[in-house]
Amino acid sequence: MKVFLVPNYSKTEAVESGLSLELWLTRHGYEVAWAQDRRSKIVSAPDIEGADLVISLGGDGTLLRAARIVGSREIPILGISYGHLGFLTAASPEERDVLRVVEDALAGELHVSRRATLACTVEAAHQDGTTEVVDAVGLNDLALTRGPLSDMVEFDITVSGHHIDRLRGDGVVVSTATGSTGYALSAGGPIVSPDYAGMVCVPIAPHTIQARAFLTSPSDVVEISLSHDRPSVPAIAVDGQFITCEGAVERVTVRRGDADILLLDFGPESFYNSVSRVFYGVRRHD
Length: 286
Known about the structure:
Tumour Suppressor Smad4, 6-stranded antiparallel β-sheet, 2 domains, 18 strands, 6-stranded mixed β-sheet, 286 residues, 5 helices, alpha+beta, 18% helix, globular, Rossmann fold
């Protein structure tokens, strides 16, 4: 079996834990590969093909990076928290023995949480009449916000051909259930169970008290069209990674991705325990 390690190279404890895991894994006959990073000394791009397990060592940002590396391969990801929040991760060294958690993951004894992804398409128009198209896949969310040169962004939002409204404000977040506890929550959206396969749409600081967050079905397509009446240069990010277009952004389309991300945890109670701990401040002593 092959294990792929994705550490946060800026955290010494995460890298040291990875080195300890590599020693333990190789002693037990597992092949180990490390993700490439600008801060690491790995020169050649490691091969994730054939990996049976991906271990993320860091916070939620590191786990999102692991998800981008995995892509559509549906390789299970085990998150070990060495970050500030660690909402998406399964365990931390303070809570559980890391080697025992990894051993359980390799033995297939952990719960597999299948998380929906977003397939995002950004269309931009060039002055010569051609259209630029950029595609991206996210586990958490797509955020379209007013850029540094705009005081607001005006856009129409449509769901599967049904026009919802024309909005003005700081933008909009379209998230998965996984991403509902991130930017979407900060913008006023609900906390959604990870089993939900639709999307969460949350306006950001809309210039009206009537705009509300709403949920879509898994088959819906969300379309955000930039207004020509009030042109703006928006900033667009998928899982915090900004998308750069040379042309003027005209339209953003978001639908459910073709492949899911498989996160390992200790069962459905893991999500609600995390909600209780992170958002309600409840400390457990059992």
